[in-house]
Amino acid sequence: MKKKKFEMPHTFVIIFGVVMLAAILTMFIPLGRYQTKEITYIQNGTEKTRVVLDPESFEYVLDENGNKITSVAPLFGTEDTGRQGILNYVFEGMTTGDKWGSAVGIIAFILVVGGAFGIVLKTGAIDSGIHRILSITKGKEIILIPILTILFSLGGAVFGMGEEAIPFVMIVVPMFIALGYDAIVGLMCTYVATQVGFGTSWQNPFSLAVAQGIAGVPVMSGAWFRIPLWIVFTGATIIFTMTYAKKIKKNPQLSVAYETDAAYRNEFKDNSEEKEFNLGHKLVLLTILACIIWTVWGVVAKGYYIPEIASQFFIMGLVAGIIGVVFKLNNMTVNDIASSFTNGAKDMVAAAMCVGMAQGIIIVLGGTSATDGTVLNTILHSISNGMQGLPTVISAWFMYVFQSVFNFFVVSGSGQAALTMPIMAPLADLVGVSRQTAVLAFQLGDAFTNFIVPTSGVCLGALAGAKLPWGKWAKFQIKFQLVLFILSTIAMVLAVVVGLV
């Protein structure tokens, strides 16, 4: 009898399993809550304020007899019960938040960007451009890996690039597959590179600045340590990716993405003859380039975020569609613009739903509010207490491990900072670790697990753009996570030894 090969569960199945685990935790872990306070800090010469929890104010929620309360998640919640149940997690998860973040904002962003690129792909400009790159880079294509990795890592380090990487995935992945590599190489050079830069940034305004402000250390300080760290981690990403890429180039069937990349390979095989690269195609590609420049300028100079960026890419798709109609690219009509937008968005629906489902995990645990009685607050308090009394280096390392695990539940960098840094900063004082080192633990833990946890909406959006299931990605990514874990451990030890302040 043939032994059945293990098959990684679908992302929906994994999330449902975690929801059930969260429901079980609510049976045993009592509710806890904090009080909040407002802090101020200076960023770029401007005074910023933020509401954070008070680490000294933790208390268990007690009943009238003074006993700790557990609140078991109901199977099905209604407005009458005042709480959402286990089986509400899909709808309630998808409707949480606002346009500025998870889940509604990320879902809308993924669908709009997917639709916009559906139009761009319909014009055939991407295919024609890839064929042109193939003819230019024959024998030298591997040089694209360090170039793209450095550029995207800088994007993550300088202005916190994350969601913005999803559109690039849709361009770069097909290009690398056409060059004889796979979707994983494209993901490593784009989305993963942004998060490597994000985690070692010396000036990220969305994560580092917030964490340092909350911790009470000078905002944007510690660059003397972080810049060399960025060089080391980015260099390690390049070496890892190039080594993997050479192996896949030699034998494509070794790739976990071999089956899912088949559609791309077949398309390039069917269109192997030299493609026309006319004025219309060039104008579409120039439109994409203009959108990229506009997006970078908007993020850096104007603070554009999810709503504005989504609209920028929608405009890009619309302009590309008009060019396609005017120049009759792929015999496009006005109706093709609409149908292509629909098809592009359709390809991203599964990822968009995962974003909402992942938020359902937090809903079952009671939410992320510091002032409400939740299981998450109790877990946060218990872990922070458990770190006290450990040797300094071990305490610093445990801070990094804790932030990595906590990122599974709260993937927002600023959100995680607001919840954990008010506790980690004073804890650092108690265990003899500098607050700057506690911030570093947050940075490394928050960023590097972003591109493997199935609760990260941006990760799932990038995977959808590459048409790669999370299970296959995780099978590959676990090796790189081990590399990052070892490097991060060394970084935390060095930060304690050199006295990072």
Q: Can you tell me about this structure?
A:
- The chain is globular.
- Strand 2 (36-43) and strand 3 form a beta hairpin.
- It is built from 20 helices and four strands.
- It has 501 residues and is mainly alpha-helical.
- The strands form two sheets. It has a two-stranded antiparallel ribbon with strand order 1-4. A two-stranded antiparallel ribbon has the order 2-3.
- The longest helix is centred in the C-terminal third of the chain and has 29 residues, at 470-498.
Intertermini distance: 62 Å
Sequence of strands across the biggest β-sheet: 1-4
Q: What does the overall shape look like?
A: globular
- Number of DSSP-assigned strands: 4
Give average pLDDT, whole number: 89
Helix content: 55-70%
Biggest sheet, open or closed, and with what strands and sense?
Answer: 2 strands, antiparallel
- Estimate the strand proportion: under 5%
The whole-angstrom Rg is 23 Å
Unreliable spans are: none
Structural class: mainly alpha
* Secondary-structure element order, N to C: HEEEEHHHHHHHHHHHHHHHHHHH
Provide a count of the helices. Answer: 20
Offer a few descriptive terms.
single chain; 501 residues; mainly alpha; 4 strands; globular
Give a concise summary.
By secondary structure, the protein is mainly α. The chain contains 20 helices and four strands.
